[in-house]
From TrEMBL:
UniProt keyword annotation of NADP present: yes
Record-given protein name: NADPH-dependent oxidoreductase
Region (Disordered): 218-237
Family under the similarity heading: Belongs to the flavin oxidoreductase frp family.
Keywords: Flavoprotein, FMN, NADP, Oxidoreductase
Lineage per the UniProt record: Bacteria, Bacillati, Bacillota, Bacilli, Lactobacillales
Superkingdom of origin organism: Bacteria
């Protein structure tokens, strides 16, 4: 196994951090690694807002009460961004029509790839972190806090810092339920129940709900309207 693969297979999210900074040169290297992720047509349709001031982290925590935000040495907000695209496109055309599903997929996939590079690069330097997707439920408030212009929206954040906790690696689905030879195969309900048990064993006393209960919480009801409303306001829907 290579060192890279070992690092990737050892990943686990870190949500508690020591009161220790990440030096600027480390942040630069992490962000330069992030930037090298593949990106649709090299459009680089995302931006990153680096939050280091405790004041701003606390303001964000008020909106999204996740302890990792408040404790992080650096919080990186990944923004889906077609604002640059508008400026480039308008050099050549009077019409700019980014609204719709493709624009959202292009920007969120680009942001996600850069985000994953960020986390792995940080982990390779001994830092830990967690992706915070809950920022989306407060999209409009974040747009105001971070002065996000038209054609931009928060996709997720990453809280980074020196780890103050270490969890075992969280077991994933068996590979044959996720990777199919040549054509798609629907998994059985028994397989889902078996994975519920694997997850329950892993979480032990920390478990409050099962994996499938969390699926029900997420998808058993209509999505929150706040994400869509903000995308409409930012002219992306
Ligand atoms: C898009 C996305 C959003 C996430 N949002 C949150 C979040 O808001 N809060 C949180 O504690 N973890 C969040 N996570 C972390 C996941 O819960 C975590 O990656 C998953 O449970 C697997 O655990 P592991 O990363 O420790 O292997 C998010 C992960 C992703 C990919």
């Amino acid at each position: 196994m290579t060192e890279t693969i070992k690092l990737m297979q050892a990943h686990s999210s870190v949500r508690r951090f020591k009161e220790q900074e990440i030096p600027q040169e480390h942040l630069n290297e992490i962000l330069k690694a992030a930037q090298m992720a593949s990106t649709w047509k090299n459009f680089q349709s995302y931006s990153v807002i680096l939050v280091r001031s405790q004041e701003k982290k606390d303001a964000l925590y008020e909106l999204v009460p996740q302890e990792a935000i408040r404790q992080s040495a650096a919080f990186l907000l990944f923004v889906g961004d077609l604002n640059r695209a508008e400026k480039g496109a308008r050099l050549h055309t009077d019409t700019f029509q980014p609204q719709g599903v493709e624009g959202l997929l292009i920007t969120s996939v680009d942001a996600a790839l850069a985000g994953q590079n960020t986390l792995l690069a940080a982990e390779s330097l001994g830092y830990g972190g967690v992706i915070i997707g809950l920022v989306r439920y407060k999209s409009a408030e974040l747009a105001e806090l971070f002065k996000l212009p038209d054609y931009t929206y928060p996709v997720f954040g990453i809280a980074l810092g020196v780890p103050n906790q270490k969890h075992d690696v969280k077991p994933r689905l068996p590979l044959d339920q996720l990777v199919f030879e040549e054509e798609y195969q629907e998994v059985s309900v028994e397989a889902i129940e078996a994975y519920d048990r694997v997850q329950a064993d892993y979480a032990g006393a920390r478990a409050t709900t099962t994996w499938s209960q969390r699926l029900a919480e997420q998808f058993g009801q209509a999505e929150p309207s706040s994400t869509r409303k903000n995308l409409e306001q930012k002219k992306l829907l």
